[in-house]
Amino acid sequence: MVNHGAPAPVDLYAPCVILLVSSLYLLRLFADAPRNLPPRPRRLPLVGNLLELGAQPHRSLARLAERHGPLMTLRLGAVTTLVASSPDAARDILQRHDAAFSTRPAPDIVRACGHDRFAMPWLPPSCPQWRALRKVCSAELFAPRRLDAQKRLRREKVRRLVSHVARMAREGAAVDVRRVVFTTLLNMLSCTLFSADLADLDEGRAGSAGEFADTIEEFASTVGVPNVVDYFRAVAALNPQRLRRRLSRVFTRLFTEFDEQIERRMRERDAGEPPTRTTEDGRAFDRQTLRSLFADLFSAGSDTSAVTVEWAMAQLLQNPSSMMKAREELTRVIGSRPEIDESDIDSLVYLQAVVKETFRLHPPAPLLLPHRAETDTKIGGYTVPKGATVLVNIWAIGRDNRVWFEPGKFMPERDFRGRDFELIPFGSGRRICPGLPLAVRMVHLMLASLLHRFEWRLPPEVEKNGVDMEEKKIWYRNVVGYATPGYCYTNLILGTRYKNVSFRPCTRFVRSIMELLLLCTPCVILLLSSLYLRLFVDARRDLPPGPRPLPLIGNILDLGSQPHRSLARLAWRYGPLMTLRLGTVTTVVASSRDAARDILQRHDAAFSARSVPDAARACGHDGFSMAWLPPSSTLWRALRRVCTAELFAPRSLDAHQRLRRDKVRQLVSHVARLARDGAAVDVGRAAFTASLNLLSSTIFSADLADLGDARAESSAGELRDLISEFTIVVGVPNVSDFFPAVAPLDPQRLRRRVARVFEQLQAVFDGHIERRLRDRAAGEPPKNDFLDALLDYRSPEDGRGFDRPTLQFLFTDLFSAGSDTSAVTVEWAMAQLLQNPPTMAKAREELARVIGSKPEIDESDISQLKYLEAVVKETLRLHPPAPFLLPHQAETTTQVGGYTVPKGARVLVNVWAIGRDSKVWSDPDKFMPERFLQSEVDLRGRDFELIPFGSGRRICPGLPLAVRMVHLMLASLLHRFEWRLLPEVEKNGVNMTEKFGMILELATPLRAVAIPV
């Protein structure tokens, strides 16, 4: 008989688990407060400092260490983590307190098949099995006598490597350095362990050899997947990402191969032969121990050495003088001998320095394997609590400018004598990598042989820009991952671009732990319940495809440090219309021209509303701003009407031609003065100030900056800084935008920061409004500028004019959007032209032909400058100022491309991805203005392969002014000056790295030298 009145156990289970997890988490936070932990960055609720890690945690943690010190505390989810980033801190952990930090926290995934109970990397040193494995590996695999006995084997494997490279050289084929070295190491290990090759370089990776290598790589990549369980261990039993199941399948394939080798060896042995090695209690190693040991040796022993040789070759190819010195030393020491013997290595002092310098700059495991505190331990005056995870950032130690001169530079000549904990790529103490002696021999022997027998050149397509030395995201690349036999927990660190997220704890307002629990637990339960409900509802809807979301945070970690690029890569996999779960917000991303047309044109009405960032609600800005008001709003229609008629209409623009010419004349005069003084021009800043003056003169009939007057520059600088701060703060990743349930708390206090900026901006605007009202009252003649038009405006519906807040917020929108976008477009265009001198020459030749000797360019000339127009279009294609435009919101549930976009979903149009779509553009990443010379594609929102200003009813109303101003400024700068890069920049070219935000800027502002023509 069913009791309908009693709740089912499953109905009670989920809330109880959520309450328990939340309570434990909050208790841990409260318990940390009175302890004397090392300094730490502020942390967010639930996720702690996970979002500080970025796409490359070793770099992010190094930057945090510069601010918080060489020993700092992070809260990664519910796990207290200590990070050491200096030689002294590393020495404290790995030597002085070695016993206290000798254990490892095993990642959840390595518990698959009970691997953590058999694997040397994860067993504690107190375990007899760990001591037995360490002893047998040290004695039978890595001891000097065993290594000397295996010299011939290593020489034979390197001989095969050289023969393979020689064959590829004869065929004119490029060499994949890491792949051939990886295969060589795989064979060396398999011959050492099984007396059998598992790969043949001459046969490629076909057959069983290729399958085994693929399995080893899959093993490493699976272990490297970010796992929410490692940060929220209370949910480990649920295995929400099913990673243990995935790794179990990989183990099954590996163990099958190992079992075949073991069985073959057992059949070959005499039936009564006793085991030759036993553990401390007299027992031999069981089958599972052997399998796990082999898995560790193959996964760790092949990649670390392979990636070190690859990095060394990359650095030498990038630094030809170092390559020459290494080859000259080899010629001097080895002479005409065709092969190198290991005994020669001691004489190759410069080669050894090359390897050390490679390890310093590119340690295979940048954070080593993690340690765990066995007891509360005092280090440097701070307490490291029992159970804390401890990471040693050897990447940061290797680039510490207090230890190394010019640490970012590859300089094998530097003095490595007397170095101790400044260079520990293999760790230190009792958990040092036992394979260090073999790795060092193999790296030196392979690198020396490749350099001695061959000259090396880059492929032509690479040689122009040099080797791409960018590191891949850690969890996607197993080669940046292992130092001791086993798995690299550092690969499990989650990464995201949201390193600017901060949170101020509310404990100052809470006086007791009970109050804290009563305050936070209902919020957490409500948040999680709404998330799971939304996920359940989404599962029943036919949403566009997308990556699988993680619990709680969804796909936030898929965004990376440059979301426009990350989402473009995801679109290649999931399609041009895809769904992401960003926190609790369903987000649909369009990444093709057809998808953009569906959203911005065919279903314009359904997607015409905006998804308003929480920071934009400061001071009620969203209730007055044309950018965020819905099109159904009377105020939006009035603002749009007056801006279109009085500011951006063709007649208004034509009437202001002289004003724009004056502002560009001032810009040219300023650049000429800098040229006479021999000073470099900050292109973006000069263009920004010119745009600022144009807007202020159009609106207020007054300049807010004078490029030629240092005294006026201070006031302009103040306004410029306010505008920049407004753009930056609104662009800061905000937890409230991903978890709207916590928005009333304003956890990052971004609304408060924006409100302070608004107050300062409004004070500036109020000064101009009051001055104009006084002039009017005194009978002064009208200036007939935009402010007069706004003060005279009366609505045709109700006859009312604009109130003061509406004017203040309108001016904020105009200055923030109208100055930055035009300035950054001019800066990107100049950067591309300086990076592509033939294109610069074509643009200047056209100007000379059309303009001739006229000192100034008139706007009527622009229509004849076809190549210049193509340059601007190509710049906006590659570098749209707003890579996602402004976010839209679905007003109703709508069918797009056969999928359902649910009501309330946030909709992003990735115009950056559309501009680089290889199905639309040939050589999409190449700057080629010529592609537009025979094309009818324009910028006005009708051609959806190029929509930097949007399209439909939410298209940027300032498009006509922006287009005129960008062309006029760029043409004038090119016509009146020749341009050169600074000497320190010219060698490597312009740094084209992007800085993501509301506006897509150059990460390094463009500074160039102007030469008057």
Automatic annotation (TrEMBL):
Keywords: Iron, Membrane, Metal-binding, Oxidoreductase, Plant defense, Transmembrane, Transmembrane helix. GO terms for biological process: defense response; diterpene phytoalexin biosynthetic process. GO terms for molecular function: heme binding; iron ion binding; oxidoreductase activity, acting on paired donors, with incorporation or reduction of molecular oxygen, NAD(P)H as one donor, and incorporation of one atom of oxygen. InterPro entries: Cyt_P450 (IPR001128), Cyt_P450_CS (IPR017972), Cyt_P450_E_grp-I (IPR002401), Cyt_P450_sf (IPR036396). Pfam families: p450. The keyword Oxidoreductase applies. The keyword Kinase does not apply. Belongs to the cytochrome P450 family. This is Cytochrome P450. It comes from Oryza punctata (Red rice). The lineage of its organism: Eukaryota, Viridiplantae, Streptophyta, Embryophyta, Tracheophyta.
